[in-house]
């Protein structure tokens, strides 16, 4: 089925059919109607190029494909969910790679020139992220999977994220419930939005805990402060590798920690080598399942579906006055290690 | 920069500019030249929709994103490599999901109608694969990452693959070199192209081995047959899960196996639970690195780059008389378990 078939059926030239598809304003109403009827009768599937020129829509969502050093990440689950949810909404996912923000912005420019994606899905948001303001200045549709950590625009753009603090708080409570009172935390360097958020859940759960290391202190606020002070000595920052995770765990165990909450499964994998104390990771990677590591699982299919929903609302101009912000809860998957 | 700017500069109507881009045959040579000059002077970047209507090229390669049960796969590495190599060649990757061959073919149809990808990259080829003949009948460009196992078209289409048999042969030789003479194999059900290929490397290495379990047999062919007969009792098929891998390993160890070659890291993960015998996996997943599993690593970035090169040759009509067939070698990554 081609434009020529439609032209024959409508008794017009191919150029007229093309005009109806691309510049309908140039064609008389009566002719336009005849062509549209022929299109319908023949079940002609307007091709994407013609449709795009008419509607200005590419039906493409662009997303970066990430790769981490040790492969212990769950980005592929998010990407699978995004592809599936996008297809249900009539969109396809187009991929790109980028090594840093600057090269990613150059790629935005290139994609916009060549493929005109309707929207972008940004991942790995971080302090000093220059990608969002670049897109916002150009009034391009996008959603971030990740909150706008310290961004000057604040909450001006739509985002979907998983509540890391709620996750580590649940992990810490799980260890408190098991009777642990000196619970350490192994994190990433300060200044990582995601890392600091996960750390905050640990401190929050310790502050909120009932009588712990100081049963004689009756004043609740004193008790909370004492809990936290104790905890302060039980924290280590790492580069995120298993090797540094193991070293940090040795120090914390020597300092009296009887259980460890970790910022990632990679760090937790290392911590497990340090000694027989309970360890909880974060991200529920295939490695966690393989070695029986208790870990926090992000609802990635749901997060991906919410990203698509946020974007389709934006693109269909059905968006509310305020941008959508969606914060989802992770769940603790309890296995052998805690 | 819009078509209107070009039209102004060339002193023609917008429709004429559109005609030059989409149907240059309709426009007089002199006018066409004037528009082209304006496009060049203004640095107007012809948008993709217009370019596609002119060239019939979408600059999109379509690939399915896969998801496995336990997440122990390395497809994300292939996809990352494909995205990077495609971008270097001026193409982008567009994703889709599909649950089986039939739904994948329905998706081909949908993609062709709506996005017109220039080519497809098919993964997970298997016996009775109906996808390749569907594409071949329509003369659509594609490459498979995986050989056309038992396909009636045989080697009629281009493919890139990794030599699984060479991998398991190397693993088996590694164990023979370490002094093992009763080496078991844990595989997938018969009829899996990939699984049977990996199995064949194990039998080949045993056949090719020098004096092994029957040092008194001096005739080399008798010796080879004896080796193989011994090996016959040391083989188990599984569904690919760690649980069945463990059960199979227990049986093989009871039958006298002193070392195990496994069809996948998942199966090897289970086999490690069965007892302290050397185990070698396949695919070098993040789990293998995490637990110190010796495993076979596929050159996935290279395989992805070769897929892109095969397709660009096809699309640029620079292809040889015979379709490209590329078979790459995996490499043995030696860790703690063997």
UniProtKB/TrEMBL annotation, chains A, B:
InterPro entries (UniProt xref): HTH_LacI (IPR000843), LacI/GalR-like_sensor (IPR046335), Lambda_DNA-bd_dom_sf (IPR010982), Peripla_BP_I (IPR028082)
Coiled-coil stretches: none
Transcription regulation among keywords: yes
A Pfam family recorded for this sequence: LacI
Listed SMART domains: HTH_LACI (SM00354)
Domain of life assignment: Bacteria
Entry keywords, A to Z: DNA-binding, Transcription, Transcription regulation
GO terms of molecular function: DNA binding
All copies of domain HTH lacI-type, residue ranges: 1-55
Name of protein: LacI family DNA-binding transcriptional regulator
Native source organism of the sequence: Nonomuraea insulae
